[in-house]
Write a structure and sequence with these properties.
Layout (H helix, E strand, L loop, with lengths): L10 H16 L9 E7 L2 E4 L16 E3 L4 E2 L8 H10 L5 E5 L2 H7 L22 E2 L7 H10 L5 E4 L3 E6 L2 H24 L7 H11 L28
Parallel strand pairs: 6-7
Antiparallel strand pairs: 1-2, 1-5, 2-3, 3-4, 5-8, 7-8
Helix pairs in contact: 2-4, 3-5
């Protein structure tokens, strides 16, 4: 344990970690103390949820700060999975947040060694034509971190064999949203497997989808078939514009 080096300006980041941890439970992505959440503070430090602390009892000031060299600051020890967060923040400068869950549907797939293939175009939201499953490694080890980094190459989400899910994003809102999407996709894929005869989209179609996702949700996106006509028209007779 090292003396706390965070400042009052960091409090919103710590509060965001606590809020995201609680959302994991509220959204059905985990129970108890399973999973963990991290957010980048600066190029050399990140906040990560503490180990073994019930999310409902967690306070912002409880969230420890960790240096990329493994030193931590605060009163509670960091998550046992701090290496996952450290290595992702070090290797991927575009990543601002990491969310790790044991969400039930995705974890069920991971316990069979399955990833999520291109059965639905929304798989592309995770950055590629599939969501890979990393091989099993003991929790909290460098081996698990190494396996996750490899499975996340070119991706924003992966499953962890016999373990759970890890998702990265530019911020905690984006990462949590993607964790919810991965769990939804896992549920749909499990249902499709039960029905049998799952049809996968081919690589060419997934490339088209990935290209469309580059502007997905952006208000400044260009659609050649759509034109903005300006302000809303006043309603006419009968309330119709």
């Amino acid at each position: 344990m090292t003396a706390r080096s965070s400042t009052a300006a960091d409090y919103p980041l710590q509060a965001a970690v606590v809020a995201t941890c609680r959302e994991i439970g509220l959204r059905g992505l985990g129970v108890g103390t399973s999973g963990n959440v991290g957010v980048r503070r600066d190029p050399e430090h990140f906040y990560v949820s503490p180990t073994g602390t019930p999310y409902e009892a967690l306070r912002p000031e409880d969230v420890p700060l960790v240096n990329l060299d493994g030193r931590w600051f605060g009163k509670l020890r960091p998550s046992s999975e701090w290496r996952l967060h450290r290595d992702l923040f070090a290797a991927r400068p575009e990543v601002g947040a990491v969310v790790h869950t044991h969400s039930p549907e995705a974890t069920a797939l991971a316990c069979t060694g399955r990833g999520i293939p291109a059965f639905h175009y929304m798989v592309a939201r995770a950055g590629g034509s599939d969501i890979r499953c990393a091989p099993y490694a003991t929790f909290g080890t460098q081996a698990l971190s190494d396996a996750a980094l490899q499975a996340l190459e070119g991706r924003q989400a992966c499953l962890l064999g016999n373990h759970g899910v890890i998702v990265v994003g530019v911020d905690l809102r984006h990462a949590l949203g993607l964790a919810v999407e991965v769990e939804s996709l896992a549920r749909q894929y499990r249902a499709a497997l039960a029905l049998g005869g799952v049809k996968l989209l081919d690589e060419a179609e997934m490339e088209r989808v990935l290209e469309k996702f580059r502007s997905y949700g952006r208000q400044d996106a260009v659609d050649p078939g759509l034109q903005c006509a300006g302000a809303m028209p006043e309603p006419g007779p009968g309330g119709k514009p």
